Amino acid sequence: MFDVIRSKRYWLALLLVGAIIGIVSFALIGIRNSVKVKQIPVALVNEDKGILSNKIESKLRKKFNGKDSKIKWVSPQKDGFNDQKYYGAFIIRSGFSKELQQQNESLKAQIISQKLTTLQKKEELPDSAKSQLLQAKFVTQKPVHPAQIKISINQGMNAQVSQLLSQALPQIANTLSSRISAQQQSVLSKNKINLSAKSWDLVSTPISVSTHESNKIEKNTIGGAAPMLLVALAWFSALIPSLILWREHTKRSASKFLNATTITSQLITGLVASILSATIGFLFANVFNLTIPNPINFIGLMFISIFVFYLIITCALDWFGFFVYPLVLVVWFLAIAVISYAPEALDPLYRKGIYSWVPMRFSMQTLTNTLYFHNGSSTTMSSLLVLLIIGFVAAILMYSSGYLKHYLFTVRPHRKINN
Q: Where in the cell is it found (predicted)?
């Protein structure tokens, strides 16, 4: 009855179950509970360079200067949006200080005009003040406009962060507008000045805020989740063929160690399977109306991702056999848990320990760019280069597996026996 409990395999199985639960919890629960949006790069652009705009820029930099601040102001760069240097931009438009100054001058003129007009009606206006009244009326008739702040959101970089910034950045601008409005209303209240509806609208909203989205997440791209789901599709497109082809080549191999001819066959059959999988993936993406701006780029990038994943998994199988397959699945769980988040939102443990090295993130980067960054991004070539290097290294290790294993398990022991 207690033979099973006394068995080492029983306790080993329990240990394995505990390890799997720990790893899955680490990947699926720990990451989500540690996600904290902070230090999101946003370009602070002052196109005005006036006195008032410089003061506002200085205050904004001081306010969002802490390590736990959600926003991290960075300097604007050429092609900063396309090259994904920052998630958004807070732009103080040219003429900002001038517009606020004109608002203040118009407000003072209206106060002077109404007070002197009241005296004029009572016939108490001194002759020396008549020119001042005329000047004040002249100033009030000049057109006055709100100061301009533009918010740009680099939507394609990350849907979640873009949504957060779409709320946070306009709120910062609106808060500035409300403070200026409160100051103006306080002056009006103290002087008991009545304004027209048009003038009151300007006092209520002295700063106009406009929001613009760059590298838009297109319709029918699953709300920006398409790149991550396509990476999942690419991974599973490699996961199944790699195992099937590895077993077929292992069975057909005359030796228990794979030779160069067998490895070459693995590469060729995997290449064909990857091309077929990428094409089928594109066809199904069309069936489900996924918006794909450039089909050729899409198929090419999917093929590269699938083939590189195939090489990684097959390399692991060639070296360690089927026992490594659960580890491959664990790596996938860890990768899919982190690549859905912006790296800035991840805890350093997950960002440096997982996100920085999993190949899936480079695949996701290339797919994100082809779906949303139509003006081109330098990150495409860099991510593609990393994928190709990973694939090349995996292929070299595949070829070396047979020779090294043959040496370690056959040649070397035989030499020891002879000696």
A: Membrane
